[in-house]
Batch of 4 targets.
Target 1
Amino acid sequence: MKIGMNLLLWGTEINTSLFPVLEQIKSLGFDGVEVPIFNLNSQDWYIWRDKLDELELERLAVAINGPDANPLSSSAEMRNHALENNKKAIDCAEIIGAKYVSGPFHSALGVFTGKPATKEEWQFGINHIRTLADYAAKKDITLGVEYLNRFESYLFTCTDEMLTFVEEVNHPHCKIMFDTFHANIEEKNINEAIAKCGNHLIHVQLSENDRSTLGKGHIDFENILKTLKAMNYQGMLSIEAFSTKLAAANIWRKMFDSEYQLMSDSIAYLKKIDF
């Protein structure tokens, strides 16, 4: 399985200052990168495509919605705004050559009503993703819908609910992305949850229980990799780790020596696993 690195470890400012980081990622033996598409100015991404091509790094895109672009809003204007933003993210993903756009773009990060999702909100989410998948299909891009834990989102917060959602969307360009951090909070058994995803699964984010260096926490990555191998999973394994540079992650203490140390130790740990 190919191994990628999520660039959110360096925060949300995704610009050309990260090009030396891309070179480090390549030198450490990574196969690709997960690129957050928060800048929706498509012209800024052509230089990224050129750099990624130069380094021969595969690329996946990540997109989210902020509170000002909520697909579940009762306001049709805001729902349309969220849809247009996500379409722009797909346009940018197409420019850098990403075939998958993953993330919790079915709703807005950190927005809550204090209640479970209503039937109307569920349908807003279905309509949003179905329309977005139609748009993505025209670009030869597939969506990887992600569930977040209960402290970050509320439309759906576990594998069973996510599967119900994706199966209701019922679109060939709408699949699933699985994140072990959220699963560690929400699932009874992570391996059983992964197996349930079946052919819907197109991308996996490997994240330690504290979002730090893989192998330094308590998540059983060895059995997770064995489960993926048994499923004949063909997608990328992306290391997703966060630091104090990402305010939305609510991490307030230093948990590793440097980004380079985290990357080198994490990829070395994964490559030692016999699965």
Target 2
Amino acid sequence: MINKIMKVAILLLTIFLSLATSKAETTFLQGKDSLNGKITGVIIDKDNNSPLSSAAIQLLNPKDNSVVSGTETATDGKFSIENIPFGTYNLKVDLIGYSNVLVKSISLSKDKSEVNLEPIKLKSGLVSTEEIVVEAEKSAMELKPDKKVFNVEGNMITQGGTAVDILKNVPSVSVDFDGNISFRGSQNVKIVVDGKPFGSQGANIGNLLEQIPANQISSVELVTNPSAKFEAEGPSGIINIVLKKGGGFGYNGSFTLNAGTKDKYNGTLNMNMRNDKLRLNGSYDYRLFNFIIEGGSNRQNFISSSSAFLNQQTSGRVRNTNHFGKGGLDYNIDERNSISLTGNYNDRERQRNETTESSQYDGNNVLNENYFFKTNEKTDGYNFDVALNYLLKFKNPKQSLTSDISYFNTNDNTTGLTERIYVVPTSNIGEKQTQLNIEDNHETNFQLDYIQPFSENTKLETGYKSIFRKTDKDFKTDVFNSITNSYEPDPDLSNKFIYKEQIHGAYAMFSGKIKEFNYQLGLRTEQTNSNGDLATTGQKFDNDYFGLFPSASISQKLGTEEEISLSYSRRITRPSLNQLNPFVNTSDPLNYFSGNPNLKPEYTNSIELGFAKYFTVTTINPSIFYRDSKDQLARTRVLIDTNVTLTSFDNYGSSKTYGAELIVSTTLFKFWSINGSGSYFNTDVEAENIQKGFVNDGYAWSGRMNSTMKFPDILDITFSYFYSGKLIIPQGELAPFQSFDVALRKDFLDGQASVGLRVSDVFNNLKFNVLLKGEQFDENFFRKRDTRAAFLSFTYKFGKGDKNDERKRRRDRPDQNQNDGMGF
């Protein structure tokens, strides 16, 4: 069945690419000589909506108001201006007896060569001029010199979802059942929010991202080969999640309500306010999600015939309640000085009830042990972060000094009750335990960046950053004593672990441009000082190391339609708190877990060759990459006693990954856009330092396609399909998985309100199945949530003031124009 689906997926992707390329080439050949754009629209009477003919249309250069082109409307009120060179223009509409209209900031580019304006309404009997600002719809994908930007605002497939759902729909990124995020097949990825750290080292980043509602996210930026300006952590790259900010002058806002099957609800309120100097924005989101989980495993061990086979079946329910609030202000002190303050707060509660049935058989498949292991767990937690930014611009606007300070705190308090009930043999006595797990993480960042331009095309960037982290993890277990009929502390199942880490880094980067050739050279140094203290046993360890991280990139434009680039970087993966904590957790009697304080950091050299081809309506971006890692950090599982495994971490000798990726974005027709990607990579793992003959290699591929059709005044519809082939992991493989989603949306009240319907995992295929192989055992386990769900959403936008007001204010206050480029 999977093979058939794979063949169908390959066929669909091939057809899609052929259609996209064919359509793009046809359009490209038609406009190859000029590479020009087109503007169309219709002029109507504001009072009765009747078309207005013979209205004069002038296309103006915004710099000097010179006329670039012109036409007049036909009897049906429509007009069209073609063969317009790419750029930004104003459009003036003039008709005797009616008000004039000036439509501003109409942009034409390779990504958007045709603009179809909303109906322009003229008011009779007036002589005033009304200004309208065109807000062009962003392309789904934007290629920038150092990153790929995927604009996800308004993505119907993720309505009612979280940041994790957003990442599931971004090329090169995949998310497994437990929220672990992989980038090009590697989980060693650095994830930031608005360019700032999100979550400290001890926190589960997947769980934290599930607290950010999808409708708060504007775009996702992928930095596949970061320069020396970025932290060296994360060999596979950096994922930057960009949150939304307020729009134009005045105040505005929106609220969204979502309801999903099997008790899934959330609501969001956004508010924004802005004037000449100050912008305030804030939002609040409430989320209540219930879902069912199931799983199982089959293990065969080769060292004991009395317990040769183990079968486990798990079922449970999870209930998540979440409050998420964020706020920020941007203040322009003057045209050279500005400050920004942002903050996020999340309060959450998670309840998990789970039952696992374990059955153990001897070599003749005779049952010799059967019991139920029940878990009731509740987690109360919060995370809080705040960041302050100051920007100083010198007389030369390209010369600037930026300082940042940020603080992050996350705290989770988990209480649990576990109970083991024996069925076979009946003589075995069950046991009860209570657990209390308190984890408190703190992280503070200080950063200073300076840009010194030497000419129009060359500049030097330097900076310094310090990171201070501290994690306090306290795990206590009480065991029920049937004699005293009370719970008593068990020191063998309790531990307190304190971990501290400091990272101090400095960088220098020189970049320049010679005609259409761009280059960038950089070097970063980082000193890491860390220490761990297992207070329960008095075991302490220190791990200090220094690293040099060079980076380089070059790019060359080949005419106006093509660009080729080559980049290199050296990166690091530091062991995390859970990987280092030496305490052996035996809460699950058949699956122990422990960290390894002797872990070393993993270093990776990465190189990537990229190419971009721009057609009029299509962008094609193929790339190939290679990563070579030494002392790879990897999870290992060994059989330690008959049928008990210990999961820990080790440094493997090396790992090499190479692959290719293709991303295509196209508009087949005016109403139909398609975005697709396909990737292939091969991984070779060598760990003979752990065990002789311990090598693993294999390839994996994945494909993703997103199709959106917009039928004006009817509805919008989106289909999304994702397929991931077999994925090689150091000690086994992850089986293929796939998902198909569909979403509908209808706008009304002139776009102020919308209703949407989304169905995720329509065919209920999303399941994670892992095969592990050890020297003394084989194991196959799977996990699944109720991923098939339907969500109904309603959104309403309100407020006064928009970008037209901003343009008018800027026209009246020309001295403030420079502030618009600060990125606020």
Target 3
Amino acid sequence: MSIAAFIRDAVLRERVREHAVMVVYDQHRRYRDICRSIADETVAVVDASESSIESREAAARAFAAIGRRGAGPKELLIYVPARPPLTDEDRQTDPFSVYAACGAVFPSGDGDDYQSLCLKAKPDDATEIRRLFEQDPSPSFELIDNIGGGLRWPTLRTLLQAESSRELLLALLVPSSKQAQALQANDSWADEARDLLRAAVGLKLITRGKTWASIADELWRFLLFSEFALDLPTELPAALADVPRAPEAARPLLEDLCDALRRDPLTRPTYVERAEAVETELDLPRHCQELDDLGIRDTFPFEERIILARAVQALEADRLDEVRAILDRHRDSVWIGKGESQAQWGLLEAAMRLVEACDDAERDLAGHARGMEHLIDWYIGSLRETDRCQREFEQLATDIVTPDDAMTSVIRHGRRRYGVVTTKIATRFTRHLEETGWPPPGRLANADVFDRLLQPLLKESGRRVAYILVDALRYELGVALHKELAETEQTELLAACAQMPTVTPVGMASLLPNAGGGLSLKREGDAFVPVLDGVRLAQVGQRMDFLRSRFGDRFAEMPLAEFNKAKDAVPAAVDLLVLRTNEIDSHLENSADTALTLIPKMLKQIRMAVHRLKERGFADVVIATDHGFFLNTHAEAGDLCTKPPGDWINVHDRSLLGDGAGDAGSFVVAAEKVGIRGDFHCFAGPRSMAPYRRGLLYFHGGASLQEAVVPVLAIRLRQDKQPDLTKATVSLLYKNGAKRITTRLPVVEILVETADMFSLAADLEILLEAHDRKGNVVGEAKPGGPVNAATGTVAVKPGQRQQVALRMDPDYEGKFTLKALNPVTMTAYATLDLETDYAV
């Protein structure tokens, strides 16, 4: 098809048919004959070239006629040999703009310029067309028609079963097995391939070989280096100046080919292998080490390192928009698909979110810190997101086993920013604590949770209630747990005020019956003990015995992990079942720098327990905690608070009980003012987030929002059977079928397909775990990116592939089974048998 015929039939005629009225503006008088040739019994064409007055009258008559029934034109095209009106003033003086407003105008947008139309007409000759326009901005139709011509490269088209130049090039780069066999059968296609490469991308093959391997090697090097060179904002280093590369005119086709190769899961591994080989062959990292800006396309793996370093520099300079732009641009980079790189980019993104949250908190502090009530409302409403971002950031920081300078800078910057903001907020909190006391009037206190939430339920005959006591469930973790549970159960999240001092013996005792009126602290030498109704409650066994004395056979208790494993049903007489866990607190106390990775497992255990309670006939579940916690990872050598003068008992290095006076570093209030009854007159603590002892990465016990505002979840279990509309098929894939992993951070793909029309819009939540032959967990999804850092699960949309990095146990080697599990029931959607093959 000639270019004139293409413009007439595929552009103008189609557009006037769609809009009925169209004005063609043509200041270069290029399209006049084409427009006139469109005229027939259905299309009226008005040519404004000869007489302006007569053409206006003709346009008015034709416009009026196309609305009438019967014979005559139904469409109107007006040809105007002038530039189109660009402003409102231009349109007011143009007599034909009213017709354009009623229908369409040509040209409309960059896609209608002459060069774009030629490229659309002859996509196989795009490079030659661009080269022609560089020499002549307005080539004639004859010149365009003379480009190419005839059915070119017939042997290649036949062997490869491909038509366009793009399809032929892709087949030469990554042939299918059938295409590879055809290319190997004979070399009759080689000369055509040379012509194709010269015409399409400007590659003059150096190799004299006629085999696919020799030609593909040169084509891959040319393709990848050309994309890199064309994207480079500066001159190439002298050592690379003579490496063959494509002209600028071939850039769109080359970039399209590279994007297609990186995007397709089937060709991505080949792309990675080829790019790594070319990078090594050309020694690009050494030759390009002086370049600061490598453009926006990361063709080679070394570019990803440089771009990451640039993003880190922007983060340190608080240029968050630049960081966000880099992250968005490289989110789907083929190089981020590597587990180690994914971990570093994930940490960078988490640091950016943390800094953004800290910036928001610092900006909003003055407006929300006028009083204790405002401060608590702010915390439970949005400020707790700062803590969530910090926890997720610290979880990802533990994945960086040996941080380089860039990651060390990211970790330091995120921690410092969080430390500055939380110190400012803590100072406001302790100031209000001194003024108004604790808990604020009208707020739910932990000491009233049992009496207000559980006692009324237990008065109903036969109503079974579970009470899950979780040690150190920070408020933001309660929010994450609530989101998960609310998907299947009627769940209410409440904010409660923890009992001071915020330590386990006091906090757990405050969750017992009548604690609001009867709990007190008795002094025993240099220590204290909680006492409720005359009963000492220093140990977990004493607290459980206290409940047993109140409820008798109606009461039972056990560790939460034991309940999840037990096969025996809870005795029918039991109306109150207490499940307890101290794993979060215990692990953080003993190994705060690595224990954060266990938090998703703990929340998973709670969800499993709720599911099993429902199966066993329980109607209600209340989840409560003794205190929150603070991650003190930003602390430096001087971050220490000195105890104020007085006679004090040190409580967990964050609070004091006894007598004394406050100073610049510590507040002191009357014990009764903060809800403490018993043998102590005063309660004291640091005004900041510093403890009374060095080296604490994790602490609680003091007075801060993170330690003293805690979640309570009240769950009404739905006993009616809900229809399961999600009939999903889950597939797991590792490197196109590979069975051995060579890194401890392998990346796997999850594909979810569903035949259920009702669940097409719903994501499927999946828990990924690697199990050895004995069922031990030896690997799990690495938090960050698509993986929920609190629950360890990943949500996958039906019909989409999701890449997920696994974090393998560093000490495990051997065979294992990767399982895609239902996070509630732990049933397997899919499994994949793999084996480690680490390079030593």
Target 4
Amino acid sequence: MTFDLLIHNGLVVDGTGERDPFSADIGISGDRIVALGDLASARAIRTIDAKNRAVSPGFIDVHVHSELALLGGKDRFAGALQGITTQLLAPDGFGWAPLGPAHARQMWDYTRFGYGDVAHAPGWETIEAYLNTFVNCTPLNVCPQVPHCAVRLAVMGWDVRPATDDELKAMEALTEDWMAAGAAALSLGLDYQPAASADLRELVALSRIVASHGGICTTHQRYHTLGRKAAWEETLEMSRQSGIPVHISHERADAEVADILDRADREDIDLTFEAYLYPAGMTHMTMMLPMAYQQGSPDDVLQRLRDPAVRENALPSLRQWLGQCDQTVGYTRSGRYIGLTLTQAAAQAGKTPEEFAYDLILEEDGVQAFVFPWQVPPEEAAATIDRTARHPRMMIASDGIYNIPHPHPRSHGCFARVLGHFVRERNLLTLSEAVHKMAGFPACRFGLKDRGMIAEGKAADLVIFDPKTVSAGSTFEHPIQPPTGIDRVFVNGQTVVENGRPTGKLPGRVLRRSV
């Protein structure tokens, strides 16, 4: 037998989480794994000796804001360098299709905090036009989700009210269109506009459509107006009424939700969640304002915030959200204050932290993003991260943001850090458990049946790494640093990373849900 590629002598971590790593050769023809075992006598066009290296399935990032970065720019290969070979689209319900030019421009203005600087504002009037953008244009595979923010915007604009019966039918029809295009899930961002105005009736109706196609619901829950525990309860009620499995974005297994996770076990609730395992998040400062001041289009919000009475009313609430005021400026439209803490930047401007934060939103036309450390003691944060890392319902996702000057370190280091810090240094996870949480588990959960595992017939999305040296290079102080110890990454049988460097190849595809 002759293969296109033969990987010899590797330690195979197959992604199932059920089998210890084992020594085996892997034979690849075209874009498929066609043989696994002792292939010493086989021939190949190219042979790689993976002695002293682990070989795993490509990692799958189910929540990351990099779909525009994949199409070009300085961070195009940031995911591939971590071993990511597939990512989901439309995190937090964000999306720009199918939208007309005016709405697409508004949504871009609103979401730019999570996507940084790109060559042009996105906008696609059909779903297929959007998905076709990624064909032969990305180093990674992408899988669509239904972008709830875009669906609601297309039907209702930025209106702050429940949908009428006719509007709900129109949103259901758009959701059907997305599922017909192969979407894996309904993606919700219930702290973001315009989705924050959706009521439970709307969420249940759209979830029923997605569930009927075998999809699931991913949700950034309604934390801001409900509080965390009530937001979890809303998600469970939505699941109960619609019958849809739910996956909760960027969460953690702490004391506040321990009883809910225990109930999920007792009642066999079909629930999973993801984490990036850092004690900080990242979003725009606008989210720290009272929800009433965030509502409407980006221009509506800026106009409202110019009212001195609104500023006076918002500052006490904003101060409460800011806690220790140790947030770090990661992105501003003007490029000012990058890398400074909120306290440092406010001191430079001669203002209190809450005054500076409020005014910066206006000065930057709403385009700004901060790293937000958890406002809990360090020992509590560390214990929470450890519990989260071990939780059987948790998978890894980066929630990365790209093309900005000072991102969260998770953007460039999340997956490598799991292998280096939580597996090798801490022994908190076994290598098999970690790879399962980064590959096999998300592939199974999101209906990507030929990804996430090493077995005959599976796609040749593979990572070769050194378990003794793999590590994240990114830190909170210096977040734009590539990982080390990840030697090669293959997407659909083609090499996208060689000797730790991008090859420039763009073999990524649009993966449709399979059930």
